[in-house]
Each structure stands twice: as structure tokens, then as C-alpha cells.
Amino acid sequence: MATGTSMTHLDTPIGADLHAMLKRAAEIRGVAMADFVVAAVQEAAQRTIAEAEVIRLSLADSERFAAAILSPPPPSPALERAFARRRDLLGGE
């Protein structure tokens, strides 16, 4: 643990069966139960966050997305006006 790292305490009641399971798993890994629990919770949290940040598409949606990228529709009149306004504002860049 890095020096100066802020620590907090998590206190939650668990059943005797779960406590025994966690204790056994920690023993198998050769670590303290608290270290085992912290590592397991951290892994689950990281996995949950990663899964929430990934966009999953069906095969049909993936194909439609690829088709739109490879053959985009022509710009709408509103988009044309927006580009013209941008050119006017930025001096023709």
C-alpha cells in the first residue's frame, strides 16, 4: 500500500456459511481473509465497470454500423448549413 493512501472501512454482516467459504478460499490462496475479500471485491467492481462501458451490438447491428461507416448517407441540409456556418466562423479552414 502506498504511503499517504487514504483508507476507509467496510463493515457488512455476512452469514456463517459465506464466512466459512471466504475463509476456506483465502486459505487455499494462502492469504488473509481480508486480503482475499478485498481482491475479490476489487476484481468484481472492475469487471462490472468495464462491462458497463463496453457497447455490445448484435451481428445485424454490427453489419448496419459497418455499412454506415463504409457508405455514409449524404449530409442533410441542416448539416450542410452547420458546415457552412463553421467555415464562415473559422475563415474557410
Automatic annotation (TrEMBL):
Q: What is the lineage of its organism?
A: Bacteria, Pseudomonadati, Pseudomonadota, Gammaproteobacteria, Chromatiales
- What is stated as this protein's family in its record? Belongs to the TacA antitoxin family.
Q: What is this protein called?
A: DUF1778 domain-containing protein
Gene Ontology terms describing biological process: regulation of DNA-templated transcription
Superkingdom to which the source organism belongs: Bacteria
Which InterPro entries does this entry report, sorted A to Z?
Ribbon_hlx_hlx, TacA_1-like
- Give UniProt keywords alphabetically: Toxin-antitoxin system
- Which Pfam family, any one of them, does this sequence belong to? TacA1
